[in-house]
Every structure is written in C-alpha cells, then in structure tokens.
Amino acid sequence: MRVEAAMTTDVVSVAAEASLHEAAGRMLDASVGSVVVTSDGNPAGILTEFDFVAAGHEFDRAFSEIPVYAAASRPLETVEPSASVERAAHQMHEAEVSHLPVADGLDLVGIVTTTDLLAVRDRIDDDAERALRAREDWTTRG
C-alpha cells in the first residue's frame, strides 16, 4: 500500500514568522498534533506537541512572543506519496518522528502519522484474515 492511501490531505500549516500562540490556536481548532511550518510558501519544518513542551521549558516568554521558527523541528523530514507505507514507517522510526509530511517535489500534499499507519495496518490485517478464511473455505469445499 502506498502512502497516498494512508495520508491525510488536509494539512494544517503556519508561516515561520507566526507566533507559537497562533500555531497552538490552529492546532486546537483543527484537532491535530502538528502543523507544518512554511517559509515563502514552501514546507520548511514541523511543529509538534512535543516542540511546544520543549519551547515552554526553554523560553522564558509568552508563546505570543515566540516565533514558530524558533521552536520548529528542522530540517523537515518528508516522504513521497508513491512510497510504500512500510517505507514511511521505517523512515519515521529512523528519524524518531510521529508526523511525516508528504511532499511531491516541493508541493506539500499530505501528512501521515503513526496513527494513520496503525489504521492501515489494521485494514491490511483484516483483509489478509478475510482472504485466508476465503481460501480455507474454498479448499474445504473443493
């Protein structure tokens, strides 16, 4: 299965110059765990819930005074939509990330998370189980 079948296409993004307060508002409004940080309209980093915790510990200022680029994770790790979900899972494991933006060239086309990959795994397991049962039914009747 390819990443494009598992990814979410409604990616929440925020400009690098925006404040952490604004980014937090976008995340809360969209009920997501990360926002992709853009610079000149191109994906440049990612800001996750973990990054907010780290920023709260590191900076002695209000989130409204801290620019997103100061807390975002960079460089941005991405995967292509045509990559396999296995490749995405391996990449996430190696990079120790749970949110992986999906880019087609410089165009941000989606995001895939560990939750998305677990849902896909459950679907694959269910499909395999149904296929195995169908094969067993066919061989016992034949």
Automatic annotation (TrEMBL):
Keywords: CBS domain. Residues 7-63, 72-129 form the CBS domain. Gene3D superfamilies: CBS-domain. This is CBS domain-containing protein. SMART domains: CBS.
